[in-house]
Specification:
Elements lengths: L6 H4 L34 E3 L10 E4 L2 H10 L15 E4 L4 E11 L5 E9 L6 E5 L6 H15 L8 H26 L4 H11 L6 E2 H7 L7 H10 L3 E5 L7 E5 L1 H22 L4 H15 L4
Antiparallel strand pairs: 1-4, 2-3, 4-5, 5-6, 7-9, 8-9
């Protein structure tokens, strides 16, 4: 797993004491980015995404002083993400692309600082703003996390049983593949969950599915299926229409733009599959399918 950092570490603090309240939930802690500006450079094309929170909207500071003021305020009133304020902070969707035009270290005191990048967004809005480095998708960090997690996380001297050892390895493999797919999707402006929705809709194109049906077919259960579909509709990747027979039902269909995006993702997924195909024979794949189906089969 990636190292979880408190705000003091995320801001480059050399002080061993956390800058925020010690009971801040770990689930919403920002990931450590490591190195000056996370290795990002001026002119680099980037995608906004918070590691571990792929569906979280990204706060953008309209001016430099807003970044500094918010970081300083963490000392007395810790908050993970700034609230949206008129003319000060606005939010963009995860997966929004942009280009770094400036990088700056904002001094908080003699021992701590925060790093941010000024982004020119490529989402058609022509807006610019400052984004914390930790909220920019970092392929260098992902690579190091993958290498560390796969080599270190699973290794332990003893397991309670061979079943436990097998299941731990299976979970590690699942996590590895999910990260791969999430990385591919993030670079193309959507999340892995949104990709799954588009994939399901393509299988019945030109027809569609009601949202309840989409939810039942997802690989992972998602209680927020309405929000996922709404975001896809806002991006022009799906269309939603009320049923003429039952106005309570909303049918979702994939658009030409959505199909085009899937074609791009398929190219990257295909490359990943070819690499995995060199590690697994057809017999291996058939056996793996059989084993997985036995695991998630309903209890008799």
């Amino acid at each position: 797993m990636a190292e979880k950092a408190d705000l003091g570490k995320d801001c480059g603090s050399n002080d061993s004491k956390p800058a925020h309240a010690p009971d801040l939930p770990q689930a919403i802690a920002l990931p450590w980015t490591g190195g000056p500006f996370g290795g990002f450079k001026k002119g680099e094309e980037v995608t906004l995404a918070i590691r571990g929170l792929p569906d979280q909207v990204i706060p953008v500071f309209a001016a430099e002083d807003a970044v500094h003021n918010w970081a300083v305020a963490q000392r007395s009133e810790p908050r993970l993400l700034p609230d949206e304020q008129q003319g000060v902070v606005f939010h963009v969707a995860p997966g929004t692309p942009g280009v770094i035009t400036r990088l700056k270290k904002f001094e908080i005191d003699s021992k701590s600082w925060t790093e941010a990048a000024k982004i020119r967004f490529r989402d058609g809005s022509k807006r610019t703003g400052w984004v914390l480095i930790a909220m920019i998708f970092n392929p260098r960090l992902e690579k190091s996390v993958e290498e560390w997690s796969l080599k270190r996380r699973i290794k332990q001297e003893r397991f309670q049983s061979t079943v436990q050892e097998a299941l731990v390895d299976l979970m590690a493999a699942s996590d590895f593949l999910k990260r791969k797919v999430e990385n591919i999707c993030s670079q193309l402006g959507i999340t892995a969950a949104q990709y799954n929705v588009l994939r399901l809709l393509r299988s019945v194109y030109p027809d569609g599915h009601p949202r309840r049906e989409i939810a039942s077919r997802m690989i992972e259960e998602r209680p927020d299926i309405t929000r996922l579909v709404d975001r896809l509709e806002a991006q022009g990747l799906v269309d939603c229409e009320r049923s003429t027979k039952d106005r309570r039902l909303s049918f979702t269909t994939i658009t030409a733009k959505g199909l085009e995006l899937l074609d791009k993702i398929d190219l990257e997924i295909g490359r990943m599959n070819r690499v995995l195909g060199k590690r697994l024979s057809r017999r291996d794949c058939a056996e793996l399918t059989r084993i997985c189906e036995n695991i998630y089969a309903e209890d008799e």
